[in-house]
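lol so apparently i was supposed to do this last week
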Amino acid sequence: MKLGRLNHVGVATPSIEAAIAYWRDVMGAVKIHEPFDMPSQGVKVCFVDTPGENGTAGTQIELIEPLGADSPIHGFLAKNPAGGQHHMCYEVPDIHAARAEFLAMGKKVLGEPRIGAHGTLIFFVHPRDMGGVLTEIMETPKGDGTH
Ligand SMILES: CC[C@@H](C(=O)O)C(=O)SCCNC(=O)CCNC(=O)[C@H](O)C(C)(C)COP(=O)(O)OP(=O)(O)OC[C@H]1O[C@@H](n2cnc3c(N)ncnc32)[C@H](O)[C@@H]1OP(=O)(O)O
Ligand SMILES: [Co+2]
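anyway here it is w/ LP2KCY5N bound
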């Protein structure tokens, strides 16, 4: 499997507002995007751009707060009440080919590809099969890959 670039690091938080303040005031985020609800994924989302070179945006942090009773991050926050690093997301050119490759390697792919926060198809691979890291695979957006 040849992964593309790291698109974002998912960080679960019990409070997006508190997390925004941390990334802005402590970590010097260069841009805080408008938070939005993704009921289909059971999360409230806010993208934060860390500083890159010469004032440009670097890596994106995806802050996620539970939305609804069935949110997939309730279990994580029960174990990590203050929040923490939740998943890493890598781009691939062809989501269906990538999914088939992970399955062929015997990895536990969590569900069918569905639309993610960048508007392209995503799927997750279970952390037990990925060195303890919940891994999100997303099809590369047509634009610049930022939200
Ligand atoms: C915003 C939309 C989208 C995007 O476009 O970017 C997103 O990123 S949405 C992000 C939220 N969505 C998801 O996480 C969907 C996929 N996740 C799941 O299906 C579940 O969270 C899970 C990975 C199957 C875990 O389910 P859960 O019920 O919470 O836990 P288990 O008891 O089954 O856990 C088993 C095992 O795995 C460990 N674990 C759980 N979560 C993580 C994690 N994020 N990172 C590392 N390890 C994790 C958990 O501790 C258990 O370990 P053991 O106790 O050793 O068995
Ligand atoms: Co994500």
